[in-house]
Design brief:
Oligomer: homodimer
Largest sheet of chain A: none
Helix content of chain A: over 70%
Radius of gyration of chain A: 19 Å
Strand content of chain A: under 5%
Chain lengths: 194, 194
DNA sequence: GTCTATATAACGATAGAC
DNA sequence: GTCTATCGTTATATAGAC
């Protein structure tokens, strides 16, 4: 049980159980005792892998937000064409679908995540990323009204995914369908002059 | 300080402070001590008005869900026409906008609300209401794919509201604009045969 | 209605043996 | 790496005086 491979595996098992319980019962209502019990270890053992309870959820959140940051960086480096915008939406659903356990946990516990950025780091972890993402989906110099459609496209996809992902036979089809509608919605931002 | 009017007022002040702190810091991270301190009373005083901490948030949630239930009841009693569907969306934004403090608190703390329905009542308080609401927005016998558009319309409005409500000069205009897009989105459920 | 004082319980986290 | 044992803190909630 001393090989590093075993250690990584245990760490991953802790994360998996944590995601499950945090989603089911919420972050604050889930105690380290519960997580440890389900893994048949003691609380103290968890502290070998994570320095605090927050550190567990941080390790989960980190990866997800890093992907969004990468997407924003990529989008910024691209020309502002309709094709680019469609590709941004496509990559966004992909991130959502691929990390759907973390994604759901994150949105279920956004109060906890929000109050986690807490001291030293600034807050608004979600808004901080959604604002530039929306910005990439409108023409330069767009009005606030123009931002509504892409915003609703993103919010609609998130909601649609969380609502239907567990009752649909083929998640790939769901993604494709959501993306389709989102593209149509976000791209209808011309011809609104009377 | 004995008149019942004074009592109601105090109760309302407790609720107002609770909504504010629950939204700001989250339900679990907000202690009754904090709420009491901000009202310049002691913890014990709160127990004269509410029998538990959960009871405070329950009193907040109750009113909001009752309005949604009324909307579902009204929608069920109406003919399934495009006009009815548009009116359902209109009433939904109205509920969202009118009770926007509670609405935001609710979505920020959905983990807490979810784990509150807990024993004896069943869970899924949100899904329980969104499912019939979506049902009212599609033609009878619609496929799952047909439900995507109304679902995204609802989710998009919620997201758009929460994201922009605090940075817009006129919230009434925001509501109108969101509703407009949502109607267009939800009503495009014909002509998708190739 | 509001207070002081306290009961009771659980949590996150650490120390140190093995 | 995992354990036992425990520390220190804070929380919800109650009892009973005023």
């Amino acid at each position: 049980m001393n090989e590093p491979a075993r250690g990584r595996e245990t760490r991953a098992r802790i994360q998996a159980v944590a995601v499950e319980l945090f989603t089911e019962q919420g972050y604050e209502k889930t105690s380290l005792r519960e997580i440890a019990e389900r893994l048949d270890v003691t609380k103290a053992a968890l502290y070998y892998y994570f320095k605090s309870k927050e550190d567990i959820v941080a390790s989960l959140v980190e990866d997800y937000f890093a992907q969004i940051d990468d997407l924003i960086a990529w989008g910024t480096s691209q020309p502002a064409t309709p094709q680019t915008r469609a590709e941004i939406l496509r990559r966004y659903v992909a991130i959502m679908a691929e990390g759907h356990r973390a994604f759901r946990m994150l949105h279920q516990n956004q109060a906890a995540v929000h109050s986690m950025a807490g001291p030293k780091g600034r807050r608004e972890l979600f808004k901080e990323r959604l604002t530039p993402l929306i910005e990439l989906l409108v023409e330069p110099g767009a009005t606030l009204a123009d931002r509504l459609r892409p915003a609703m496209a993103l919010g609609g996809m998130s909601f649609g995914w969380m609502f239907f992902a567990d009752q649909v036979p083929d998640r790939g089809e769901l993604c494709a369908a959501l993306l389709d509608i989102a593209c149509e919605l976000a791209d209808a931002d011309r011809g609104d002059r009377p």
